[in-house]
Design goal:
- This protein is α+β, with helices and mostly antiparallel strands and 142 residues long.
- The protein has a domain of 85 residues.
- Helices cover 44% and strands 30% of the residues.
- It contains four helices and eight strands.
- A six-stranded antiparallel beta sheet has the order 1-4-5-6-7-8, with helices on one face.
- A hairpin with a 5-residue loop joins strand 5 and strand 6.
- The chain is elongated.
Length: 142
């Protein structure tokens, strides 16, 4: 008697399951893909369309701050940043622009009043390469 209830439940669950035919999922997947591509196209148009996709040089200027437990730990530091895709990056720090981090491909240097010191490739230069690949993928998918 104590095995009867689990056997009945397993039997009901086994026969109660139905598989959807695979032909129904393919049109839904294609519809989702078209909808996703439409959203990506709208986002690209909102950013400037083909001009956005053809960006090769970017320059930024501003202040950077450090934080500890959500509170600032400094008065900030001026910076200038220049990108040239796919793999060139230059960051100039301080008001006199006398601290420079320079990345060209997998090579990097920090240039200060002490001279140039070799550094490993920066994560931001790798990020630039990835975003360029995404832009190329978007162009090829259109």
């Amino acid at each position: 008697m104590k095995y009867l209830l689990p056997i009945i439940l397993l039997t009901v669950f086994a026969f109660g399951q139905t598989d959807a035919p695979p032909s129904e999922t393919i049109p839904i997947d294609q519809a989702n893909q078209k909808k996703a591509q439409g959203i990506i196209d709208q986002a690209i148009q909102a950013l400037g369309g083909q001009a956005y996709l053809d960006i090769r040089d970017i320059s930024q200027e501003g202040r950077t701050y450090s934080f500890h437990h959500g509170t600032p730990t400094s008065n900030g530091l001026q910076f200038w940043r220049f990108y040239r895709y796919p793999d060139k990056d230059r960051i100039e720090l301080t008001k006199k622009r006398d601290v420079i981090e320079l990345f060209n491909g997998d090579k990097g240097w920090e240039i200060t009043y002490k001279g140039a010191q070799a550094q490993a490739a920066s994560p931001s230069s790798m990020k630039g390469r990835r975003s360029l690949r995404v832009n190329q993928w978007i162009k090829s998918a259109s």
